[in-house]
From TrEMBL:
Protein name: Uncharacterized protein
Species: Thiopseudomonas acetoxidans
């Protein structure tokens, strides 16, 4: 039983990534360890990751380049779930607004983006 559980922990990430469209890009991986999963201390398991689907819409407003796109956050907790985020990126000022789909606009997260950010490099260059 422990063998199957360890196999599932390590194969979950590769299986989920293999189901994504070809132009999808993994932009974040969360590696975790757990007391109840002693094998994870040898090699931490990917329990969550975020994907940019490769599609974006670019426009220009007030001489600033604005890009709109979605990211998808996959979680493997006791049950699997997916959270969709709507993102607006200002390539000119390097600012990003992220909103979880279906949540109120007041929950929008604002942050500065560095030029080394994977999505910034893909959609702004």
């Amino acid at each position: 039983m422990f063998g199957y559980h360890a196999y599932y922990d390590y194969s979950w990430y590769e299986f989920k990534v293999s189901q994504l469209p070809a132009d999808s890009v993994v932009i974040y991986e969360k590696h975790t360890t757990s007391f109840f999963k002693p094998w994870s201390y040898i090699s931490p398991v990917v329990n969550a990751f975020t994907v940019f689907d490769g599609s974006s819409k670019q426009s220009e407003q007030n001489h600033q380049i604005i890009v709109e796109y979605y990211t998808y956050h996959f979680l493997k907790d006791p049950s699997e779930r997916q959270i969709i985020f709507e993102v607006i990126l200002n390539c000119t000022t390097q600012e990003r607004a992220t909103l979880e789909k279906g949540k109120p606009v007041s929950n929008t997260k604002f942050d500065k983006v560095d030029t080394t950010d994977k999505v910034y490099q893909l959609v702004c260059n």
